[in-house]
Amino acid sequence: MKLIQYSARRLACKALISMMTLAALQAPAAHAEELLIWSAGAVKAAMIELVPSYQTSTGNTVKVEYAPVGTLMKRLSDGGKPDVVILSQDVSAEAEKLGWTAPAASTPIANVGIGIAIREGAPEPDISSADALRTTLLNAKSITYIDPTKGTSGKHFVQVLEQLGIAQQMKAKTTLGESGYVVEPVARGEVELGLQQITEILPVKGVKLLGPLPPPFQKTTTYTIAVASSARSVLAAQNFKQYILSPASLAVFRNKGFSIPLQ
Predict the structure, then answer these.
(1) 3-state class of 98 per DSSP?
(2) pTM of whole model > 0.90?
(3) Which pLDDT band, with edges at 50, 70 and 90, does 17 fall under?
(4) Vertex 9: Cα angle to 8 and 13 (nearest 5)
(5) Is the pLDDT of residue 22 over 80?
(6) Fold of the CATH domain 114-217
(7) Inter-axis angle of helices 234-244 and 44-58, to 10 degrees?
(8) Beta carbons of 133 and 219 less than 8 angstroms apart
């Protein structure tokens, strides 16, 4: 009987501690913290909506710096000290190995594929198969995508061009973007086709998502969030991470064009 009572008290104590910890994370901080988030540009549309609500509910100040993943990795290697990083999963293991994030600290947020954009009102060429994609690319007068040394979609697309056997033919009519929404020149009528992560196409006014790359050439990227080893306040950084991974926040990611992996 005493053993049962003791076990019940232990369970009740653990439950109380868990509730107090959760309440502490959700409550506004007694001393507001400042957080520096380094984030891949593909999640910008969701983050713009989520960050103000987080700041209001916690009192913490959040600064988000968006850049292609390759640029973020270079900044980390140069000794940059963010509090939280949002990277593509294919480099998050490297960030952990190099000590920029804690072991097993990266958690998947959401997935997104690569798409092709055209100007609103422009004719819609076929990209539904390998042959159709090849023909459309060869017929295009100009195309833009992120510099493959900096961005995930650009790095993948140069491989697609090699697979299609048209890498050399495309060079003369290609403009490489440095960062941000590289399909914006398509909206201005300066470039005919733009290629980028779908979540970086949808927010751009004046363009239309022609469609995703066909299955043989598609690449689905998973973006992850991790507390950086350089975090000034691990508690505040962890609090922000939990906020981004909450069901309400993941619903925002879904509304911006992401799919949500099973947690």
Answers:
(1) coil
(2) no
(3) very low
(4) 120
(5) no
(6) D-Maltodextrin-Binding Protein; domain 2 (3.40.190)
(7) 120
(8) no
Which pLDDT score, from 0 to 100, does residue 103 have?
A: 85
Confidence of residue 263 (pLDDT cuts 50, 70, 90): low
Distance CA 17, CA 24 (A): 10
DSSP letter at 150? T
Beta bridge partners of 85: 38, 226
For 164-201, write each residue's pLDDT tens digit: 999 999 999 999 998 889 999 999 999 999 999 999 99
Same fold, 31-111+222-255 and 114-217: yes
Boundaries of every domain in the chain = 31-111+222-255, 114-217
Query: What's the full length of the chain, in residues?
Result: 263
In whole angstroms, how far apart are CA 109 and each of 89, 140, 149?
10, 35, 24
CA proximity to 142, closest of 172, 167, 103: 172
Residue 137, exposed/middle/buried by CB under 10 A (0-12, 13-18, 19+)? buried
Q: Which CATH class is domain 31-111+222-255?
A: alpha beta
pLDDT above 80: residue 14: no
Q: At what angle do helices 130-139 and 152-164 cross, to 10 degrees?
A: 100
Burial class of residue 242, CB neighbours in 10 A (0-12, 13-18, 19+): middle
pLDDT value at residue 119: 96
Across 81-120, b (16+ Cβ under 10 Å) vs e yields: ebbbbbbbeebbeebbeeebbeeebbbbbbebbbbbbbbe
Distance CA 187, CA 203 (A): 11
pLDDT, position 162:
96
- Residue 120 and residue 106 in contact, taking contact as beta carbons nearer than 8 Å: no
